[in-house]
């Protein structure tokens, strides 16, 4: 049996270090079950954990999407939404009132991945839309298995990409989305494709209304069934 050490022997050192971060293990109702390492939550079939996906729109209602860096351990060189990551297992990012934990995590990771300064946003600017339960194997060693909290925000921002995280970004208009998804030359992450083909179009069509407040409906969309 191939050991974890052998699996990551050729992986990027910085990305391997990030595998030590403690995520939040959850059940299918998104109830906190305690800490779990990023490694253990993604290794092989994975363990269900909490995640978030940020969809950032500019003042022209264009969506910023990112190409994940080649150094990433899971889904390298795949295109995804603006920022996808995990709240960590400490009090500030576990707070569930008004979705504050995932919003704080989003601000932290937008700075880490895209170089957007921490003081660019406050938590009130992010609007919670829904939760998505999905599973997406990458290869025989890694997979995604997440309750993904979807956050939308609208702002014009300056980026300073962390090349260990993000290879490039694009701004995509509403009427360009399908051509991006259909482009055979692009690798599209499974969670971005899933959300884009089901939920994103209706949000985009009603963006200004949706961005007025958090969605009070916390129904989890289960895409595993």
Automatic annotation (TrEMBL):
Nudix hydrolase domain location: 47-194
Source domain of life = Eukaryota
One cellular component (GO) term of this entry: cytoplasm
Alphabetical keyword list? Isomerase, Isoprene biosynthesis
Biological process according to GO: dimethylallyl diphosphate biosynthetic process; isopentenyl diphosphate biosynthetic process
A single Pfam family, by name?
Answer: NUDIX
Coiled-coil intervals, chain numbering: none
User: What would you give as a GO molecular function for this chain, any one?
Assistant: isopentenyl-diphosphate delta-isomerase activity
| SUPFAM superfamilies per the UniProt record, alphabetical | Nudix
Query: Which InterPro entries does the annotation name?
Result: IsopentenylPP_isomerase_typ1 (IPR011876), NUDIX_hydrolase-like_dom_sf (IPR015797), NUDIX_hydrolase_dom (IPR000086)
Task: Report the EC number(s), separated by commas if there are several.
Answer: 5.3.3.2
Look up the record and name the pathway of this protein: Isoprenoid biosynthesis; dimethylallyl diphosphate biosynthesis; dimethylallyl diphosphate from isopentenyl diphosphate: step 1/1
Q: Under which main EC class is this enzyme filed?
A: isomerase
NCBIfam families with a match to the protein in the record = IPP_isom_1 (TIGR02150), PRK03759.1 (NF002995)
Family assignment?
A: Belongs to the IPP isomerase type 1 family.
- The name this protein goes by in its record: isopentenyl-diphosphate Delta-isomerase
Annotated source species: Thraustotheca clavata
